[in-house]
């Protein structure tokens, strides 16, 4: 158990550190586009490595088994999964606004310092390109693609957990903890994406001569709130990833035939 926690923690720490390195700096370059995919890959590596440490049942004489009806939804933790869904909606709404507001844009076509690459904001008042990346379509596409692939991988992993050949109370505990870890890893991925997108949006809108649109300035307090939500959510899911047993889970798995 302790070894599995360490491996999940190692994947989490490596992923967050790599994402921070890729997004550090003031350049709206190519590196930030790899932050979320790299984080997803390292989180998955930590989960897979930790799962390999789970001992399979060893034959020691006569064994008994239960006839149990298991469903994937029975293992999905309700509260963490709902949080992931809400964060995904918030992220989609934010990127749905910042994407169309990025270059190319009708108000930025005549500005030579604002390249038409989807990495800069289209609303520029003084002809000066912003410092740091703007979460336009250039970054939104890899983020969205990574989250879609991560969600598909999570569903596949949850379905495999249901059929994992570990029986008895230990098997039930393993399945629930693994399901919580999978959902928590997805939550870390979405939470960091929300926090990062809100941070860079807020940062760009706050730079002088970038965008004097009143609507953009009024959005900054909401972006701070969204950034705080993303950070808190990331911390919550990080704890659940490393310590899944403390998370709220679904109801007990129903037995069709009791064990003998």
Describe the model.
Keywords: Membrane, Transmembrane, Transmembrane helix. The chain crosses the membrane at residues 34-54, 75-97, 137-158, 179-201, 221-239. With 260 residues, this protein is an all-alpha fold. The protein has a domain at 72-247. It contains seven helices and two strands; from the N terminus they run ααβαααααβ. The protein has helices at residues 2-23, 35-52, 72-75, 78-98, 137-162, 168-205, 214-242, and strands at 67-68, 255-257. It has a two-stranded antiparallel sheet with strand order 1-2. α4 runs antiparallel to α7 and α6 runs antiparallel to α7 (214-242).
Labels describing this entry:
elongated, 260 residues, transmembrane, membrane, disordered C terminus, two-stranded antiparallel ribbon, mainly alpha
Write a brief structural summary:
Keywords: Membrane, Transmembrane, Transmembrane helix. This protein has 260 residues and is mainly α. The chain is built from 7 helices and 2 strands.
């Amino acid at each position: 158990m302790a070894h599995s926690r360490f491996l999940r923690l190692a994947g989490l720490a490596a992923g967050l550190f790599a994402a921070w390195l890729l997004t550090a700096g003031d350049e709206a370059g190519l590196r930030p586009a790899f932050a979320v995919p790299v984080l997803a890959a390292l989180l998955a590596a930590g989960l897979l490595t930790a799962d390999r440490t789970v001992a399979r049942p060893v034959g020691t004489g006569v064994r008994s088994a239960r006839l149990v009806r298991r469903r994937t939804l029975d293992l999905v933790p309700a509260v963490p999964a709902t949080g992931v869904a809400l964060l995904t909606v918030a992220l989609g709404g934010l990127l749905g606004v910042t994407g169309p507001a990025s270059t190319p844009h009708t108000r930025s076509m005549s500005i030579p310092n604002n390249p038409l690459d989807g990495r800069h904001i289209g609303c520029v008042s003084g002809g000066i390109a912003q410092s740091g990346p703007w979460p336009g379509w250039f970054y939104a596409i890899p983020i969205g693609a990574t989250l879609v692939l991560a969600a598909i991988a999570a569903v596949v992993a949850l379905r495999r957990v249901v059929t994992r050949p570990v029986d008895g109370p230990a098997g039930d505990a393993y399945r629930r903890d693994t399901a919580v870890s999978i959902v928590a890893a997805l939550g870390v991925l979405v939470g960091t994406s929300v926090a990062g997108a809100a941070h860079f949006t807020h940062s760009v809108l706050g730079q002088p001569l970038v965008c004097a649109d009143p609507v953009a300035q009024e959005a900054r307090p909401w972006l701070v709130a969204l950034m705080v939500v993303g950070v808190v959510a990331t911390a919550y899911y990080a704890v659940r990833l490393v310590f899944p047993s403390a998370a709220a889970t679904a109801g007990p798995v129903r037995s069709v035939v009791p064990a003998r």
